[in-house]
Amino acid sequence: MQVVCLQEEAFYALFDKVVEHIESSRKNKPAKWIDGEEAMLILNIKSTSTLQKLRDEGKIRFSQPQKRIILYDRDSLHEYIEKHVRETF
After folding, report:
1. Within a domain: residue 3?
2. Rg of the chain over CA atoms, in angstroms?
3. What is the pLDDT along the chain (89 residues), one digit of tens a residue?
4. Dihedral angle sign, alpha carbons of residues 57, 63, 68, 69
5. Which pLDDT value is given to residue 42?
6. How many domains does the chain have?
7. Residues with Cβ < 8 Å from 80, sequence gap 6 or more?
8. SS3 of 70, please?
9. 68 lies in which domain range?
């Protein structure tokens, strides 16, 4: 086993760099689970009832971790859009 000794300033500088690296990688990757408002923006719909209809018909994936919280799978929304693409002539 190796023991590495660092001065206090060096330790905190290293720690700050690690935190900065983690935050920058988190910003580049969008969240997998999103709320209804963002889901409606992706699908370009205005009505929550349309979103509920897609959910009830099983066309998009969702999770309900609590009674009033419904989250939507971003990948499922993009798959739904791709499934309905019409090719040009």
Report:
1. no
2. 21
3. 888 888 888 888 888 988 888 887 777 777 889 999 999 999 999 999 999 999 999 999 999 999 999 999 999 999 999 998 988 87
4. negative
5. 93
6. 1
7. 43, 54, 59, 60
8. strand
9. 33-83
Residue 39 counted as domain residue: yes
Residue 49: what are its φ and ψ, rounded to 5°?
-70, -35
pLDDT at 3: 84
CA distances (Å), origin 88, targets 13, 68, 80, 85: 55, 41, 19, 10
What predicted TM-score, i.e. pTM, was given to this entire model? 0.65
Q: Tell me, yes or no, whether 65 lies in a domain.
A: yes
Alpha-carbon distances, residue 79 vs 44, 70, 88 (angstroms): 14, 19, 19
Question: Is 67 part of a structural domain of the chain?
Answer: yes
